[in-house]
Each structure stands twice: as C-alpha cells, then as structure tokens.
Amino acid sequence: MNYESSFGGDAITARSEDLYGSDVDQDAKKKRRNTIIGVVIAIALLIAAGVYFFGGDKDAAAGEGAQAGAGGTDSQAPAVTVIVPGSGSVERVINATGTLAARREMPIGIAGEGGQVIRVLVQPGDWVKTGQVLAIIDQDVQTQQARSLAAQIQVNQADAVLAQNELDRALQLVDRGFISKADVDRRRATRDAANARVEIARAQLREAQARNGRLNIRAPESGLVLERNVEPGQVVGAGTGVLFRMAARGEMELRAQMSEADLANLSVGVRAEVRPVGAGRTFTGQVWQLAPVINETSRQGIARIALGYDKALRPGGFASAAVISGSSQSPVLPESAVLSDDKGSYVYVVGKDNKVERRNVTTGTVTPRGIAIASGITGKERVVLYAGGFLNPGETVRPQMQGAKAG
C-alpha cells in the first residue's frame, strides 16, 4: 500500500516535470527564431540602403533587399554612378579684391588771388561741363580796378589824339620855315609815346579782366563732382587747399590687389567682371594698367580695371573682381566627384575590371559647370560621381553611367 502510494506520487511528479520542461524549451526556441528573423530583416535593410546610397535606384534597392531577406547572395558589388567628363574650353579666372576709385581724379583749388566765397553752385554727385562755374568769389574790388584801367585807356587815347594833331600842324609849318625839323621830331616822338601809353593801358585792362575771370572756381573738364570742401562766406586763397574733387568724364576703376604670379599672367585689355559690395549685380570692365612695382611687404601689385560711370560705383567702396586671363582645354567635374584629404585632391576612376582606382588630380578654375581639372585625368576615364568617400582603392563596383537606368 505504501509502495503503491509512493510509486504513484513519484510518477505524477516526473510527469509534471516533463510537461514544464517542454514549455520552457518551446519558449526558448521561439525567442531564437524571432532573433534570427530580426537579424535577417536588419541585414536586408542594410543591403538595400547600401545599394541605394551607392547609386542604385529605389526599385533595385528594394529588390536586392528582398533577395537578401529571402536568402539571396550576401557578397554583391555596390552600384556606383560614373561619368566620362571629356575635355572642353575652360576660361582661366583670377579672383581679386580691391577699392573703387575715380580713374582720373582731379583736385580743384583756387587759381586766382582768392577772396570771399559768395555762392557755391554744385553739390557732390552733380555733373558739370568744362568751364562751368563751381563757386563764385567776391569781385567788387577787382571790378573797380578794371573800371579804373578802362578809364585810363580813354585818357591815353585823348593824349594820343592831341599829340597827333600837334604833329600835323608842325608838318604844315615846317615847309614855311616857321619851325625847325627838330621840333617836328619832338612832336612825332610825343605822338608815338602817347600811342604806346594807350596800348599799355589796354594790356593792363586785359590782365585785370583775366585775373577777375580766374577768381571764380571753374571745372577744368566735364565730369562728376565727388567732394565739396568750401562753403559760402569762406575766405579762400592760394594756400587754402583742395576745394572740390572731380572724376574726369565720370570714369571709375577698381584697383585690384593681386599676387606677383597673377599679375604675370595678365595683360592689358583683358575682360573683368566687377561686383561692388551691396550692389547686387556685376559690371564689365577691362584691365587698362598693370602695376610696374610690387609692394615689398605684401608681395602684391595692383591691376587697374576701367569701368564706366554708374551710381552704384562709389569711390572708396570695396569690390571683388573675376579677371578672365585666358582659356585652356581641361576636363570639368562636378564638385561631388572631387575628393580631398591630407595628400591633396583626388578622384576615383573605374578601371576595365570594374575596380576602383584612386587618381590624384590638380584642380583649376571653379566654373558654373564644376571644377576644372588641370592635371591627373584626360577626361576619357569613368569617374565616380557620387559617394566616392565610401569606396576603397581596389574595390569592385557595378558602374552605371549617369542618366542610364539600372539593369
């Protein structure tokens, strides 16, 4: 009885342990299966993302991700987009900055003896013509002096007429013997001296009139008034200094600072595009003079770029310039294709075995089409366009020409 009870209890206990043990195993198997499924899905997503990033389209990426999730091949070469840039004409551009100024700046001071300024007739920014009066000087004293000289001419003319009449009478009497020839000669000399005094008085009057004409400040040439440094009531003279500044014919220039090497590659007459700060647009000019000397401290010289008048070109302002120094035949690549590291600039080229090869290049001018390559490639190579930074030399890829659909 006891043995049966004991045996029956042990059997029930063993059966219970088998049931609980099988449930634990099933839970563990489910967890392992879920883990494996999650890993497979993650790998599929990574493969799909890699294919999309390396140049494949979304459909191809989704297809490859599905294949990977379904147990496809794990070692598939990444697809990359490539271009064959060829070679084209690229303008050599020298970039520089400088200061705007009048091409021919004219300082204007007092030309006459000076005096008190009565009126100033122009303002900065006004256009003036050659000989136009800029400021009027008080001329009351000089005008009276001129009138005195004019009156002196009339006095001398009267003396000259009297001397001539006396000479005429003497000539009538000399034949009758009433006066001597010596008296006639004296009267002739008196007549000549009177005529000479008339000419002297006339010359003095013309001199006074010329001085009076120089009292007013006039424009020596047509152009644009830049500065006004005189006001009514001011007394001006020879030592007063510059009263006005003008730009002859309104012509402007950019005095661009350039290195010795850049100046050596320039010539007079080349085209330049100038962009003043704040103007929002560019102005076309040309180099009209290159500096004959180089600054010893900065090792730079000045290229003077001639510009026509425009109100946006203000002397003293800052501007940048792109000077076209010539053209050359070079490949042009988008910026995404050109990489750089501590060794310099480089690109990735896909060889005949579809293996990536690094090519060190020398970059040139940056154009709206991209970066010109001065050396390193000929333009006939297949150059990786995107994601070159994620490739390694010798890696096998699946090249796809830009614009072509994935197979």
From TrEMBL:
Residues 332-397 form the YknX-like C-terminal permuted SH3-like domain. Residues 186-218 form a coiled coil. The chain crosses the membrane at residues 36-55. The keyword Transmembrane helix applies. It holds the Pfam family BSH_CzcB. It comes from the Bacteria. Keywords: Coiled coil, Membrane, Transmembrane, Transmembrane helix. Residues 254-323 form the CusB-like beta-barrel domain. Residues 114-242 form the CzcB-like barrel-sandwich hybrid domain. Belongs to the membrane fusion protein (MFP) (TC 8.A.1) family. NCBIfam families: RND_mfp. This is Efflux transporter periplasmic adaptor subunit.
